Input
Amino acid sequence: MKIAFIGLGNMGGGMAANLVKAGHEVRAFDLSAEATSRAQGNGCSVILTVREAVQGVDAVVSMLPNGAIVESVYTTDVIGHAFTTALLLDCSTIDVATARKVEDAARAAGYEMVDAPVSGGIAAANDGTLTFMVGGSDAAFAKAEPILAAMGKAVIHAGDSGAGQAAKICNNMILGATMIATCEAFAMAQKLGLNLQTFYDISSKASGQSWSMTSYCPVPGVGPQSPADNDYQGGFAAALMLKDLKLAMEAAASVGAKTPMGQRAEELYAAFTAAGSGGSDFSGIIKTL
Output
């Protein structure tokens, strides 16, 4: 299959490489010369413009920073320039309203499109073990699933247009809040004189267990290897967690949902990033406790 891949950053670069490994012909575009150089080294064909990249392809996959860029790229350079037979897959994490707006525009022009944000992080993007949450019609999902499966371990149909984005921001609101609670518990356990490995051994097998603890422990040397073991570098940047929490709060306000824990998590990550830690892993917030 011939696939255009738009956006080759920390996540997109690994995703595009895995499409190549799966046997697809990938036409890659990014504004960064460094990113396109890496993509070329991974077997992608580097194309100079989005409009050129999408010409004659079977599918367009994008991984872009925000909703404004997604809307601009699709409405200006993809819709009307790719064949209408091309399936459009946006894997960016953006607000639900923009996802639905772009998908409505695509359908009006004769395309099938899905929103397919991911859970995993840089390592999962490189390893092809992402989880995709997909919004779109049954027919579009059926076409998207084999493409996404080449980049992930799980591809789940969340519902109609925008449902993938809704699932992603709800999931990451849980992640942000539970990471803070996990950090608080380890900090308190230490001050109470508990050995942190012993506390992990207990809580990881008790009712306090969570992904934030057993898969991504914020304490160096405890649990499986995580960014905590690399001075909180790599992994999922705190600035990206803050972005997702802001999206969650916007979505909550739009439907009148009460999210006091999510709101407090957003406030704490806002303070953490404002203090200069936006580039560090989000589990590094334990340093503030």
Notes: The first helix runs from residue 12 to 21. The domain at 2-159 is CATH 3.40.50.720 (Rossmann fold). The two ends are 50 Å apart (CA to CA).
